[in-house]
Amino acid sequence: MTDAERLLAIEEIKQVKARYYRCMDVKDWAGFAAVFAPDISVNYGPVLEDASELKAAGAAEVVALVRGVVEPAVSIHHGHMPEIEIVTPTSARAIFAMEDLIFWPEGSLHKTMHGWGHYHETYEKIAGKWLIKTLKLTRLRVVYT
């Protein structure tokens, strides 16, 4: 892989992650599903205190899981400072620093959640497109109101 090919792959992976955040926040579930490899596996950890880890496998299950958490809410997700390693021409690893802010509707257990952490991911290039293959979210801090 040339330096130019490696830089192009890194930029394409950044675009996939940006699309992941945007599609989640605007509730574009078809666009959200399109960023995942068919055999995606995710672990979002616990979203609420005393909750079990949120895990899913397969694009449809991941979309259903995330949709169930954020669809009734206004969500704002930001990704920062990507560390991307191209392992082979069709596989990569990445860590993205993240911040999220979620506003739940009246009557919910919490009004807001503000969190910080890191996405640890692997990517696979399938049919010429980079897709998220595995995702684990680790949180540094979460504040609820």
Count of discrete domains: 1
Q: With helices defined by DSSP (H or I, 4 residues minimum), what is the helix count?
A: 3
Percent strand = over 45%
Strand segment count: 6
- Averaging pLDDT over every residue, what do you get? 95
Main beta sheet, described?
6 strands, mixed
Flag low-confidence runs: none
Distance between the termini: 49 Å
Structural class: alpha+beta
> What is the molecular shape?
elongated
Main sheet: which strands, in order across? 2-1-6-5-4-3
CATH architecture grouping: Roll
Helix content: 25-40%
CATH topology: Nuclear Transport Factor 2, Chain: A
What is the element string, with H for helices and E for strands?
HHEEHEEEE
Radius of gyration: 15 Å
Oligomer: single chain
